[in-house]
């Protein structure tokens, strides 16, 4: 009997056994570069438009009541505003003295001896500090009548204590103080007021507006400024600022060298050919300053006060000195034969101290309520000097 060979069931499934999977893995070197974050751009989209506003639901009675309340509030606000305005006006009237009547009816000029006095009815106008009667030289009749007109325009005595309402009176009192101090100094007294005034005027001479010129074309090119601009200035045609300044300054300096400061050479403090700086003014020589100081010291109180007022108005002591020397009847140095015709007019003095502004406004125009107000104020100051010294 032949033995049969049997196969184990598990041996028949050996073919289906899982065999190991062999794969060749690639080795990758890790990167040292930091990962970059993706730029996430938001999604832009335009949605539907918002709904139109709708009126709030309410009864007609509620709407009428709301409208009435608003009208009442408006009326109340208007009444409160009117009350505030009336209170401010009453306070201003109280400060200015407009509500109180003045104690005089008429202001007049009377001649007393060799002087003129301004009378308020029968009372003479007095100095606010010394309480002395203001006495004006007899030949200054226009000044006396202008002073009387200034007082006649006042509404109360309180307004007379406000300097901006009586500018001519303040100027006259300043001249009287300077004249009294000079008289006292002649008798051996001190004159601190005149000394301080002269020192202040000499500081204006170092930065005189008539002597501060724009650099010439060749000097401007050297500093890299470029070509000079031109303007069509009234009365001068198409000129540069330097040409305008030279035309204005030359006749004034010539008159000063011939009749006021003989032998004194006054040069520009800015814009000179020998100046390396375009910002810092060149100081005047010591002999020039001494000659000008001696001339100022020789003036009487009226002329010295006029030089001070004109200098403060135009920021030019040279123009102020030329202006006073042409109008004064007590000039220290002999005036030319046609002294009256050689007097510098108010318009000419204003133009000589306003060259830069005129040059710019010729191109860009004037600012309303600014340039015109400054012009009127400067002319007023120069006009008061004419009354004071003539």
Features:
6 strands; disordered N terminus; 390 residues; two-stranded antiparallel sheet; ATP12-like fold; 4-stranded antiparallel sheet; alpha+beta; chaperone
Overall description:
Among the domains are: about 105-165, no CATH class; about 190-390, ATP12-like fold (Orthogonal Bundle). About 50% of the residues lie in helices and about 5% in strands. It has helices spanning about 10, 60-95, 140-150, 165-185, 190-205, 215-220, 240-260, 285-300, 300-315, 315-325, 345-350, 355-365, 370-390; strands at about 105-110, 115-120, 125, 135, 230-235, 235-240. Strands 1, 2, 3 and 4 form a four-stranded antiparallel sheet that branches. About 25% of the residues are buried. This is Metallopeptidase MepB. Belongs to the ATP12 family. It is found in: Mitochondrion.
For the record, give the distance between the C-alpha atoms at the N and C termini, rounded to a whole number: 173 Å
CATH superfamily of the domain at 191-389: ATP12 ATPase
Instruction: Output the helix-strand order.
Output: HHEEEEHHHHEEHHHHHHH
Q: Note the main sheet.
A: 4 strands, antiparallel
The dominant shape is flat
Average pLDDT, rounded to a whole number, is: 83
Strand proportion = 5-15%
For the record, what CATH class of the domain at 191-389 applies? Mainly Alpha
| Assembly state | single chain
Helix content: 40-55%
Radius of gyration: 44 Å
Q: Quick one: how many beta strands?
A: 6
Instruction: Please name the CATH architecture of the domain at 191-389.
Output: Orthogonal Bundle
The secondary structure category is alpha+beta
Q: Could you list the spans in which at least 5 consecutive residues all have pLDDT below 50?
A: 1-13
Tally of helical segments: 13
CATH topology of the domain at 191-389: ATP12-like fold
């Amino acid at each position: 009997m032949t033995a049969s060979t049997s196969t184990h069931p598990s041996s028949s499934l050996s073919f289906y056994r899982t065999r190991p999977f062999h794969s060749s893995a690639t080795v990758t070197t890790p990167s040292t570069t930091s990962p970059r974050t993706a730029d996430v751009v938001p999604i832009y989209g335009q949605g539907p438009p918002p709904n139109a506003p709708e009126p709030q639901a309410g009864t007609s009675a509620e709407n009428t009541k709301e409208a009435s309340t608003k009208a009442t509030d408006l009326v109340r606000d208007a009444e409160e505003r009117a009350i505030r305005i009336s209170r401010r006006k009453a306070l201003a009237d109280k400060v200015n003295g407009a509500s109180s009547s003045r104690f005089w009816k008429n202001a007049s000029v009377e001649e007393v001896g060799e002087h003129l006095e301004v009378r308020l009815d029968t009372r003479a106008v007095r100095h606010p500090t010394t309480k002395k009667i203001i006495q004006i030289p007899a030949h200054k009749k226009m000044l006396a009548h202008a002073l009387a007109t200034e007082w006649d325009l006042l509404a109360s005595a309180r307004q007379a204590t406000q300097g901006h309402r009586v500018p001519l009176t303040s100027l006259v009192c300043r001249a009287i103080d300077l004249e009294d101090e000079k008289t006292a100094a002649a008798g051996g007294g001190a004159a601190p007021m005149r000394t301080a005034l002269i020192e202040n005027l000499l500081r204006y001479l170092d930065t005189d507006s008539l002597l501060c010129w724009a650099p010439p074309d060749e000097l401007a090119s050297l500093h890299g400024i470029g070509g000079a601009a031109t303007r069509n200035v009234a009365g001068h045609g198409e000129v540069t600022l330097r040409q305008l300044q030279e035309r204005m300054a030359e006749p004034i300096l010539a008159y000063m060298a011939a009749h006021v400061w003989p032998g004194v050479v006054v040069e520009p403090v800015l814009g000179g050919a020998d100046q390396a700086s375009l910002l810092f003014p060149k100081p005047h020589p010591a002999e020039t300053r001494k000659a000008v100081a001696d001339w100022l010291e020789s003036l009487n109180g009226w002329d010295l006060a006029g030089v001070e007022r004109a200098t403060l108005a135009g920021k030019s002591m040279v123009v102020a000195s030329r202006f006073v020397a042409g109008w004064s009847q007590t000039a220290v140095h002999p005036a030319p034969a046609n002294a009256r015709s050689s007097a510098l007019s108010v318009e000419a003095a204003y133009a000589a101290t306003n060259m830069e502004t005129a040059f710019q406004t010729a191109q860009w125009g004037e600012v309303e309520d600014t340039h015109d107000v400054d012009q009127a104020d400067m002319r007023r100051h120069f006009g008061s000097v004419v009354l004071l010294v003539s």
